[in-house]
What we know:
Blueprint: H1 3-17, E1 38-39, E2 50-55, E3 63-69, E4 75-82, E5 104-107, E6 112-117, E7 122-129, E8 132-140, E9 146-152, E10 155-160, E11 166-173, E12 176-179, E13 185-186, H2 196-199, E14 203-206, E15 212-216, E16 222-229, E17 232-233, E18 238-241, E19 246-251, E20 257-261, E21 266-271, E22 277-283, E23 291-297, E24 300-305, E25 310-317, E26 320-330, E27 336-341, E28 347-352, E29 358-363, E30 369-375, E31 390-392
Antiparallel strand pairs: 1-4, 2-3, 2-31, 3-4, 5-6, 6-7, 7-8, 9-10, 10-11, 11-12, 11-13, 14-15, 15-16, 16-17, 16-18, 19-20, 20-21, 21-22, 23-24, 24-25, 25-26, 27-28, 28-29, 29-30
Amino acid sequence: MTHRRISILVATAAALTLGALPAPAAQAAPAPAAQPAHAQPTHHRSQPAGAVFVQSNDLTANSVIAFDRGADGRLRRTASYYTGGKGAVVTDAVVDPLASQGSLTLDRRHRLLFAVNGGSDTITVFGVDGSRLVRRQILPSHGDLPVSVSVTGDLVYVLNARDGGSISGYRIDGRTVRPLAGSTRQLHLMPNANPEFLQSPAQVAITPDRSTVVVSTKTHGTLLTYPLRHGMPSASPTTTTSGMVPFALSFDRAGRLLVIDATGLASSYRVGTKGRLTQLSQAGPTGQQAACWSVVVHGTLYAANAGSNSISSFRVRAGKVALTDATAASTSGGGPVDLAASRGGQYLYQLNGADGSVDTFRVGRHGALTRIDTTQTGLGATNGRPLEGIAAS
């Protein structure tokens, strides 16, 4: 490992642990898992335009907090729904307890919501009706500490972070999700290495054409790609070096892979046969710290910078990425982590890991962001209740 790589990894760790927040306190178990946990009357003057969901990652009883989204993008909390599992905290993580992207994933096509239960090694599947959730299934993750879920078409893959990491697949059959027997693959990363939040893998993503599963390995500095045949992954992956700390994965409209590196770099790749990746471009660095989460909206790639309390933006054109604004927006709370965009891309939602707030941004011309509202969840690392995961419809 080069001296430059070591210094970057140290800087990344420092950015995420600067001003270390108090460890999560033990929490009393809530009432038996009735659904929903609680609800409030609606006061919208018109029908909600959509919904936003946030995962509590509660260490005793994980839940999903549901919000109605108004036509103006503003949120109103409606209810909380228990997942039937427990949350988890990756060792040494501060504002991002699961150290991942995709811990809460919405499948709009099948109207399903997937939530990881890191402390129970399970995945909860909810049926979605507006902001109302109905718990349908609790499935084994076939590994230790699930942190990320990807859904494309009728195919689902989960990423487990501990014991060297693993992936496992599922198939959506109507409204039922069934495990794919024989689909589990061990990643063979560094088991039990410290600090865990830097050594564990960050995200799993299925390509839009369902030909490949991609895993970002964070400080291992590589992307692992598994070609799929009838949904089943190859026995071993193709390994591609990518930046220093590859973290967040997303895709443009043509199915090209976009990778955000924690050092502030954005890279684009063509995914070829047998999972081979060909780099098309690279942009940045942004000069911001701990760029670890991303979303694509109308040809703009946004990256949340947990160490700088900001969002950066990149233009994506014909597979090429270019930095447009290193500080496209500032967040209201500390430690911005997960991002989600509303259906149609008019609004961007940013979850702040420190105080648990959700910032609402209006997406304007050329990807410009205007913050129009901030909604409190009452959770967050500073409250001893670290949360992670956001999804929007």
